[in-house]
Amino acid sequence: MLDALCVGGWPWLAGATTAEARRRLREYLDEVRHVQINGDSTRSRNPMLVERLMISLARNTAATVPVSRLAACGGGEQPLNHQTARAYLDALHQIFVIEDQPAWSAHLRSRSRLAKSPKRHFADPSLAAAVLRASTSALLGDLETCGLLFESLVVRDLRVYAEAADCDVSHYRLDSGIEADAIVSRRFEGEWIAVEVKLSPAHDSIDAAAASLRRAVGSIDTERAGAPAALLVVTPVGYAYTRPDGVCVAPVTALGP
To answer: Tens place of pLDDT for every residue, the chain, 257 residues?
Structure first.
């Protein structure tokens, strides 16, 4: 799984070693910040500031982070201001380097506020790993970052399969902390599933994920939104099964449209 995070799902890296993939991804990112991000723009963007913003994005992968925080985290001797960060983010979106995961619009039972900010992702988590210059051994020593990159990998795969099934992938979070890492919803019929991603396949970790999904569903007015078609916990390894409480558990390799 760590190799998958560093190599990514790029067809042009199929069969590449992890070290070769990391080198070629760094070369690609250098081209992004020096050439591609400028595109047809009449205003030249500072490659150093672009790199700082990408580092800030990589450190905040799979999180709902405002532009102001990304700008602050990308600071230094020549810090980013809010307008510059916004313009650079828009440019990175336009060349498909990053892709936001929007918030799901749900009918709530509770009075908690629904988060409207998107989660931030690179188009592939291997880009975040390359920006951070993270090796497999470094990821193994930083399980928090590893877990966020794994969540980003799962969201990437869900998007691919969702597109084939005419679905959207969003996220769900209340200000009370109740959340689901991903909501996969049909664009027209209204059916939906809630997904929680766990780096650890241990029973206690899956128990916590299942409880989190049930809390999330409990906060939604299912008479208006409809009951979820499934609740799913995604892990890196293991086998697919359904728990006695009805929550499904599956490794990322078992996902499909």
So the answer is: 788 999 999 999 988 999 999 999 999 999 999 999 987 666 778 898 899 999 999 999 999 988 988 888 766 666 688 888 999 999 999 999 999 999 998 766 665 667 788 999 999 999 999 999 998 888 889 999 999 999 999 999 999 999 999 999 999 998 888 999 999 999 888 899 999 999 999 999 999 999 999 999 999 888 888 899 999 999 999 999 999 999 999 999 999 87
Encode 69-108: b = buried (16+ Cβ within 10 Å), e = exposed.
ebbebbeeeeebeeebbeebbebbeeeebbbebebbebee
The two structure tokens encoding residue 63: 């999180």
Domain residue spans of the chain? 2-101+117-147, 166-254
Q: Are the CB atoms for 249 and 206 separated by under 8 Å?
A: yes
CA-to-CA distance for 152 and 175, rounded, in angstroms?
22
Question: Alpha-carbon distance 91 to 130, whole Å?
Answer: 19
Exposure string for 8-20, b = 16+ CB within 10 A, e = fewer? bebeebeebebee
Q: Does domain 166-254 have CATH number 1.10.3470?
A: no
Q: For residue 175, give Cα distances in angstroms to 8, 112, 179, 209, 218.
A: 33, 6, 9, 18, 15
As a residue count, the chain comes to 257
